[in-house]
Design a protein that fits this description.
The complex is a heterodimer. Chain A is an alpha/beta fold. Chain A folds into two domains: 1-92 and 195-306 and 334-356, P-loop containing nucleotide triphosphate hydrolases (Rossmann fold), CATH 3.40.50; 103-192, Rossmann fold (3-Layer(aba) Sandwich), CATH 3.40.50. Chain A has twelve helices and 14 strands. Chain A has helices spanning 49-56, 82-88, 100-103, 110-121, 130-140, 147-158, 164-168, 177-190, 207-224, 235-239, 259-264, 269-276; strands at 6-15, 23-33, 38-42, 64-66, 69-72, 75-76, 93-96, 195-199, 227-232, 244-249, 252-258, 324-326, 332-334, 348-349. Chain A has a nine-stranded mixed sheet, with helices on both faces. In chain A, helix 6 (147-158) packs across helix 8 (177-190). Chain A is elongated and about 80 Å long. By secondary structure, chain B is α/β, with parallel strands linked by helices. Chain B has 15 helices and twelve strands. Chain B has helices spanning 6-11, 38-43, 75-82, 105-114, 122-125, 132-142, 148-161, 178-190, 208-225, 236-242, 260-265, 270-278, 319-323, 348-353, 359-373; strands spanning 21-33, 48-60, 64-68, 90-95, 98-99, 115-118, 196-200, 228-233, 245-250, 253-259, 329-330, 338-339. In chain B, helix 9 links the parallel strand 7 and strand 8. In chain B, helix 6 crosses helix 7, helix 6 (132-142) packs parallel to helix 8 and helix 8 runs parallel beside helix 9 (208-225). The longest helix of chain B is centred in the middle third of the chain and has 18 residues, at 208-225. Classes of the chains: A alpha/beta, B alpha/beta. The A-B interface holds A 44-45, 176-178, 206-212, 214-215, 233-237, 239-240, 263, 273-275, 277-292, 294 and B 70-71, 177-180, 207-213, 215-216, 219, 234-238, 240-244, 260, 274-275, 277-283, 285, 289-294, 296. Chain B: Residues 1-16 have a biased composition (Polar residues). Chain B: Pfam families: ABC_tran, oligo_HPY. Chain B: Belongs to the ABC transporter superfamily.
Amino acid sequence: MSDPLLTVEDLAVTFPDPDGSDTRAVDGVSLSVEAGEIHGLVGESGSGKSVTARTVLRLLDDADVSASRLAYRGEDLLAKSEREMRAVRGDEIGMVFQDALSALNPVMTVGEQIAEVVRHHGDVDESTSLLSELRRKYVTGTSKSTASWRRAVELLETVGIPDPEQRASEYPHQLSGGQRQRVMIAQALAGDPSLIIADEPTTALDVTVEAGILTELRELCADFNVAILLITHDLGVVAQTCDHVTVMYSGSVMEHGPTDDIFEAPAHPYTEGLLRSIPEGAKRGDELATIPGSAPDPRDRPAGCPFRDRCPEATEACTDSLPEHALSAEHHTYCHHRPHEDGGRDDVRTSPQPER
Amino acid sequence: MSTTDTDSTSEQNDSTAPPRELLRTAGLKKYFALNDGLLDRVFGETAHVKAVDGVNLTVRAGETVGVVGESGCGKSTLGRTLTRLYDPTDGSVIFDGEHIETYSGRDLKALRRRVQYVFQDPMSALNPRKTVGESVGKPLEVHDIASGTERTDRVANLFEEMGLMRSQLDAYPHELSGGQLQRVGLARALITEPDLVVFDEPVSALDVTLQAQILNLINRLQGEYDLSYVFISHNLNVVRHVCDRIAVMYAGEVVERGTTEQLFENPQHPYTRALLRSVPSVRERHEREREELPGSPPSATNPPSGCRFHPRCPEFIDGRCVSEAPETRSVAGDQGHEVACHWAELSVEKREAHTPPDGAARETIEREGASGEK
């Protein structure tokens, strides 16, 4: 197997607090994204999934980041200068944010915003003379014809926006929520990246629209061989979109593996609890399974397994370490009690938690 | 849309009479004026956003009625109008036998005690400068129900009932988590011991584990306090779990209504079917592809002619869809199930033989239908 596109190993992100109570948002996260796959990063709010994604692009400058490895195509992202990172952002790794209305520039047409990325990417011939540009603007009144503009229109068409020529010269507020989200995807594609990080791209949308956006992402992934790191709290989104899933809880990875394994044979009490709490198929009046309690405060997270206070199977062992077990080459869980006792534990590797 | 509410009259002849009606709206409308300036009023016609446009909804004692639809379909406006947070433009709201659409002053205040509203975002619904204990206790003071230690005791007891701790009475909203805040929101609504509670997307902002906790709580409280619920949500999985009956809204109108089972097992309106097809599924992720419903909800100012869903309808029949607004009618052989679609009058054979016209053919029909209407 060739090197993965993105490798994150033992990532820790801490937000320093002058009072001394630092917030450790991410604590020992490892994940890898292969070229051309859709990798789901699932977790509740506050589990550190967005922080993990933003750290990959080095978008958080007030955080202390440490990792034994944070590599894109084998290149260390933490060693790059700010200038070199700028070449990575957009050109190599694109980003789609949850709230398109606040991520897009309200006073610029969406076509121009996409064209800007195309120009920044740097391989377009923009040569139009001032004279022809003036004639276009004041005499013929035809739409823009620069290469970057044409590319922007093309991209809008790619992401499934009807009447792209017309839409390109509109402003974000004139588009619907779903269309704005598609514009963001077009913008992320404009730099021709190999990886797109999509942070809750459909959370604010109706289910009817969400289904379309997710189909779009899957098609892009296949057509352009783009890998997507899809961050979401919604297991329904993951189930029908992703190839691999990483489940996060309170700053740590609980389990990761192929989507089918995670949904059909979950091997962590937290994942099992998550799947049981989905109301799908529940009949009127059924008591839904819940996970009692709530996630620990990231400023004061217990050592060992962060889930142990809510875990029905927690024992003494859970207070001091979070061991990794490989159930198969791809399916790993971080739990003392999985696989179950009779399930064979030859491949157990215990990694003690870093001291705090 | 005109409805003959056959379900309630016919069911009363049954040996097991249904529980009494607690709330009934008839032809309820809520329009918002768009350009309300003086000049507009004098010289022009005021355009209106027809957020709710003739809705009939019945809530019986002890049941939960779900209202589902895409954002902008008017479901929240419906909830706010039937609780008189908004004044209806037209139509009537009968609560416990009394017309409440004209209530004001003292009557309205008394009504507030019996009808409560739980908002989606408790963080913005609670006063950030007051402790949550104060916020929850305030209605007791406003309605002159209890004061002093009695008030404190009642709030503390209700907090425990909601799964909150007594120590959290003195917390400010920002000190609590999303799930805890929604419990406070529930407590604030239940403190006056209402008969009807309207929930507006109460769990949409919550993670799935918290969502399950709150839904269980909502279900348990209904039995304990003998409450009737109106449950507004876009999440069909949640609605299925909570509701006895469901009304599906599109562009300000109810397009289909029935029991939860009827709607999920035997959806009659193309819009309901499209909604169900777009729901994400964890269990059937291989068996069933999610399908997008193309297009977006129509303008609420100038809704499409005929059936408001026709421009997006994947099961478009013919010119009738464009020119004639479908009546709400009962679904044959399915008591209490009503649908507003021209499909309802066609036989099964005709439906199966039908292939929706597409592209140019459909455009022609739509153009002719539109001009024919004018």
